[in-house]
Amino acid sequence: MRPAGQPRTTASPRKIAVWTAVALVGAAGWTLLALSRGEEVSAAWMVAAALGSYAIGYRFYARFIATRVLRVDRTRATPAERLNDGVDFHPTDRRVLLGHHFAAIAGAGPLVGPVLAAQMGYLPGTIWIIVGVVFAGAVQDMVVLFFSTRRDGRSLGQMAREEIGVFGGAAALLAAFAIMIILLGVLALIIVNALAQSPWGTFSIGMTIPIALLMGFYLRVLRPGRVTEVSLIGVALLVLALVAGRWVADSSWADTFTLEPKTLVIWLVAYGFIASVLPVWTLLAPRDYLSTFMKIGTIGLLAVGVLVTLPNLKMDAVTRFAGRGDGPVFAGSLFPFVFITIACGALSGFHALISSGTTPKMVQKETQIRMIGYGSMLMESFVAVMALVAASIIDPGLYFAMNAPAGVIGDTVQSASQAVAHFGYSISPDQLAAAAQAVEEHTLLSRTGGAPTLAVGVADIFSQVFGGAGMKAFWYHFAIMFEALFILTALDAGTRVGRFMLQDMLGNLYKPFRRVSWKPGLVLCSAAVVALWGYFLWVGVHEPLGGINQLFPVFGIANQLLAAVALTVCTTLLVKSGRVKWAWITGVPLAWDAVVTLTASWQKVFSGDPKVGFFTQRAVYQDAIDAGKVLPPAKTMDDMHTVVTNSTVDGVLSAVLALLIVMVIADAARVCVRHLRNPSATRLSEAPYVKSAIVAPAGLVASKEEKAELAAAERSGP
């Protein structure tokens, strides 16, 4: 079935030829990546495999789901149109909303996860990032966005409660909110680490706030609907802010924008609260839209740089750590941990919170859900591919020297060189020193977390295309600042979504909270959310082993467990809404994600390897305490006790979250079986149909029919 009112289209010979060529390019990329044995292969083939697969997936699979499975209806009014209050519900131009949604979902995961996963080789990560997004991640985002839009923008947890039941719904609400706080705290910590002592980054990112306020006012008051105009103004000001950031860093103002971590925490908490309570058109949407230009621009230039320089992938296709599970970057075998580590680049539970948070309250037409939900996730997946490229084109010896902890490689270039040799790779002390000097860093050893490695790869490509080797330091620090901006846009949208989730939860106890724009609830819930993640962040900044650092090890698993909740809700709703024959579309990804995440949870709780199992790690450190020994990363006996506490908390939390997810899946299965036995007894919480008065295209570029419809609407007037 086509969307209501949409004309049937037929494929012309020209279109057939174009899509055949696209398929052949993608197939050629996959073939060369898969069949290379021992020899280096150009990174351009990874780009070709990704872009070819994305194009086919979006054109055919996403369209099939939108038209045949979801049956999007262009005549149906969305909650943004029906409930427009100018605060949270606001019909937003599809181009601006695409930018907001992409910026909101694209946090640390697609940048950091693939870099860490390169430890296993470039091939496993590439396969999961591309195949995973086409059949799982993008599908989840689009389907959640559709069902939330049909339910007045309900949050994921509230949809679970209403459609699965009180028992499973309560487990989903609790799990989703707890995981959300963990994710926000981790994102905030990464931002603090990136911006601390960085006047360039702090100034440039700070300037995006007044620029966004100007764009929001311009688009709302001065020149409504002039998206192209405001885009040009915003991009020009953004470029100026980036250039000025370097000027500031070299001027007498540098001290003003050189902030300590604890000061950044205060500013982040204040910003998160303000962004959560202000009307969505004033700051959140325009700022995310503005950030998207930088994100897409940088990643696009990186892709062009790869095609121009044609760097070879120096990392092995599959390393020996894939099967052994004793990698220096992170412990654990390829299955399940490469899928957990990559996270957002292929499938992310955090995305489901955005797709059931801010975005469904802003979408103009149901027909735009395919572009915004599926399309944005493909864009993020390409970011992950480019991050994997950046990590795989640098010398593997440098990669492991940067990503292995100091306890493994030591703190000198000599000890690091020797340690890397034990991993099966080679890099001399002089080469390590030269690499640091090239980007004007004192050292690159043990720069864990993935961000510095990505920055080195980006600098290597950009310096070959723009400015030569003398610009390598510039591009390195640019990439570090770019990553902080990338992540910050997920923090502000995530805080607002956390507020929606808390309001939905409290609304089950006190009905006024269900009105998301009710001022007392808006302020109280925003304050509660920022206080929660702000507390963990504050403690984590002051105590290297405490606060959010304590919860960091469960970040990846928690995110993927949340994806299991989202896919469970989607599958349940497909069954209950009469789409049983299409339930496999989310049911198959759910089965895979459940197997992966529950296996990982089991290993993190019960593994006998202290590098993997939390309780085994606890026992090792407790025995060392009893023997009066101090083990790394602890430096004092107090640190040893903190590690014991952290391991206990992480182990218990992993077990509890896994149990909650099992409860949600089991209760959803019960609901589906009950529906199949007695469909007439099923009740859906879908909002009633209201005819839409908004005329807007479904994609970025209006079709011939849509242009005629827009022209007719303009002639008829308001």
TrEMBL record:
Keywords: Cell membrane, Membrane, Transmembrane, Transmembrane helix, Transport. The keyword Transmembrane applies. InterPro entries: CstA (IPR051605), CstA_N (IPR003706). Residues 43-600 form the CstA N-terminal domain. It is found in: Cell membrane. Pfam families: CstA (PF02554). Belongs to the peptide transporter carbon starvation (CstA) (TC 2.A.114) family. This is Carbon starvation protein A. It comes from Streptomyces rimosus subsp. rimosus.
